[in-house]
Every structure is written in C-alpha cells, then in structure tokens.
Amino acid sequence: MERWRRSAGVRVQAAAVAAVSVAMAVAVGSLAFVLFLQRSQLHEVDASLTQQAQTLAAVVRQAGSEDIELPAQLGTTSTQQVVGADGTVLASSTDLRGHRALAADPGPGRSTRVRAHLGPDADYRVLALGAKDARGNPVTIVVAQSLEPAEASRHEAFVLLAIGGPLLVVMVGLVTWWVAGRALQPVEAMRRQVDGIDAASLASRVPLPPARDEVHLLGGTLNRMLDRLESAVRAQRQFVSDASHELRSPLAVLRTNVEVAAAHPEKTDWPATAAVLLEETQRVERLVADLLLLANADERGLPMRRVDVDLDDLLGAEAERIRATTGLAVVARISPVRVQGDHDRLARVLRNLVDNAARHARGTVTMSVRSTGKAAVVEIADDGEGIAEPDRERVFERFVRLDDSRSRQQGGTGLGLAIVRQLVEAHGGSVAFVEASVVRLTLPQ
C-alpha cells in the first residue's frame, strides 16, 4: 500500500480515494435502502391484512358459522379463511378450497402474524384474528397476502443498485481525476516556471491563481523563497565585488612600492618601503581573516565554545589599551557582569566597538557595563559627530563606510561592525546605535 502511494500520482490517489469512499457509501446506502424498503413493504402488507381481517370479522358477526359467505371483493385481493374453534375450515376463498387452516386461533380479540408457503414459490404473510360469529361461537379469521410483488420490487431495486452503484463509482473516479487535473494546473504552471529559473533569472516569479486557496498560498511561499534567494545571491555578488575592491587597493600599493624599489634600488628608502609593505600586508591579512569569518558564518554558522566570561574584565582591558595607545580620555563605569559565551569572540566584539568609537572620537570615549538581572548591557560612546539616524542600521552591513576616505586612511575595511553583529547574534544578543554616538550591546545572562 505504501509503495503504491509513493508511486501513484496525486490525481490517481485522489480518484482512487474518491471512488473507494463512494463505493463504501453506495454499499452502505444500498443495504440501508433495501432493508428500509423491506420493512416499509411489510408494514403496508400488515396494514392491508388488518383492514381486510376486520372487514371479514364484521361479516362473520352478522351470520352463523354455516351461513358464512366471503365477500367477492375480498376474494379477489387476498386469500381468506374462517376457521372454527375445532380447527375446521368453515369458509375459504377459491384458492384455498380444501386447504387446511393456515393459522391457529390466537384467542378472542387477539391477532398473530406468520409466514406460510402455499406453493413452491409462493411466500405469504398471514394474519390470524380471533372473533365470534352471530351465535357467539369463537372463530378465527385468517387473511393471507402474497409477498411476491414486494419481493419482486426489492429484486428490481437491488438490480438497479447493483448496476448503478458501480457506474456511479466509476463516474465519480473519472470526474475526480479530471477535477484534480484541473486543480493541479496552477501547480504545473508553477513547476514549469520554477524549472526555468536559474541564477540569471532570479527576478522571475511564479504565477498566482486568483482563488485564495492552498495553491495560492503555495505560490506565495515559492515567491517569498525566490525573494530570499535573489536577495542572498545579490548579497553574495555584492560581497565578492566589495571584497575584490577592498583587496585591489592594498595590492596596488604593494605592487607600486615593489616596482619602484625594483626599478630604482639605489634611490629607494628601504626602511620606509618595508614599513609601507608591512602595513599593507597586515591590512590584507586582516581583510582576508574578516572575509573568512563572515564566509564561515554564512555557510555553516559560527562554532561557539561557551564558558563563563567576565565582561567587566574584557571591557576594563579595552579601556586600558585605549589609554595606553591613544591620547583619548577614557571614562569607564564598570560593574561585575558575567555571561556564558565564547571568550575570544566576545573580546573581539568589544575591541571592534571600542576601536570604532576611538576612531571617531574627538577626545573622549565612554564605556560602561551593567546587569539588568536578565541581560548584560554594554554601552560605548564617543564625543564625535555621531551617525545620522537613517544610517544607524546601515553601518552594520558589510563594506559600509560613512566616511570612505577617512576609514581607508585609518585602516578600516568596513567589516568591523558587520562582524560584531554576526558574533553578537550568534550569542543570542543584539547590538544597535541607540543614539548618534552611543552603541548598545545586549547579551542574555
């Protein structure tokens, strides 16, 4: 069964299920109909026999046992007997002349119903009614009616159901197969459209049927998936383009210095040239390391070695570093805060944020860390011009520099804040500029 379900198409499965369901419904309905018809017919026969028996009992009450004559009109529609108390047949219709009593005396005023066979193929319904004749002698009124017409009508109904039921099942199966095919036409149109989409045509979208049904929802889901794929491919292409552009600048500097030194070795200031080459090589090294980090994060996520990390110690170390390496004033408000996370990656997050603040500060960098009970909050601010509100989210994108020339001179690659957001989100936290010059980092505790 399971193998058939896997191999059969949706149209075939739908048609088969509909056919089987209708077949079961027809079978149960046919059985119920036949039983109801049989019961209804038997009820009608009993009602007719009761009326005839009461009519015949009224006739018997008007005459003595030896003077009973059955009404002609009764004799033409049913079979009757008048039976004495000793079982002697006192009167009978023509078809029962010489026949023994069909039923026993049920008692005065009572009646019984039985079946009787008056021939090899003659099945009768018999009603026996206790009565008295004109002299008060007890007699039994027996009225019988053939069940052959009722059985014949039930047989005809059974034949019709036996022929019409399978035809109905086949018709329902075919109609369901056709309707399922029509219903799947939009799906087939979507399949053909998706089958023709490649990297060069990601802007294409599948057609949506007008009806707001499940197929429409499927089409909407596919289009949203294509939106995400197009966005991812566009971001990848932009990433490659930006990375190539970033690498071109230091490589050009390296090549120029090497070519000049090779062409004029006697005029070259070798210590200065070596310093330039070292600086540009370090810049390329940092850029490649950042690119590898982001590429690994995009491909398979960032592996985390979670341990207890004291954010106050990390931020205090950054404060001391800035004091020692720059002429900036550092204001630090540090409270003991501990989180679960990757020590080295969180240290890099804080370093990138502090370096970004130091790069844009005029004279002061302010940093703080505190705990809210549920989260650790780090805020780093500078007294620089700050970031305009429309750009506060954009600066976390890759290769974004709001002041391109100054960032290049200071060695920025445009990846520092992008790496910060990637690492923070991998820890389940968030980072954002809450004010022009204030960035807030939140990590769960």
Describe the overall structure:
This protein is of the alpha+beta class. It has 3 domains: 144 residues, Beta-Lactamase; 84 residues, Signal transduction histidine kinase, dimerisation/phosphotransfer (DHp) domain (Helix Hairpins); 142 residues, Heat Shock Protein 90. Helices cover 55% and strands 19% of the residues. It contains 10 helices and 12 strands. The protein has a 5-stranded antiparallel β-sheet. Strand 1 and strand 2 form a beta hairpin. Helix 2 packs antiparallel against helix 4, helix 7 packs parallel to helix 8 and helix 8 packs antiparallel against helix 10. About 3% of the residues have low confidence.
Search tags:
445 residues; alpha+beta; Beta-Lactamase; Helix Hairpins; Heat Shock Protein 90; 5-stranded mixed β-sheet; 55% helix
Summary of the model, kept short:
With 445 residues, the chain is α+β, with helices and mostly antiparallel strands.
Number of strands: 12
CATH level-two architecture of the largest domain: 2-Layer Sandwich
Mean pLDDT: 82
Secondary-structure-derived class: alpha+beta
The helical percent reads: 40-55%
CATH topology call of the largest domain: Beta-Lactamase
**Can you write the helix and strand succession as a string?**
HHHEEEEEHHHEHEEHEEHHEE
Query: Which blocks of ≥5 consecutive residues have pLDDT under 50?
Result: 72-77, 404-411
Q: What strand order characterises the main sheet? A: 2-1-5-4-3
Gap from first CA to last CA? 53 Å
Taken from the alpha-carbon principal axes, the silhouette is rod-shaped
Q: Tell me the radius of gyration.
A: 51 Å
Largest sheet: 5 strands, antiparallel
Total DSSP helices = 10
Strand coverage percent: 15-25%
Write down the CATH class of the largest domain: Alpha Beta
Number of domains: 3
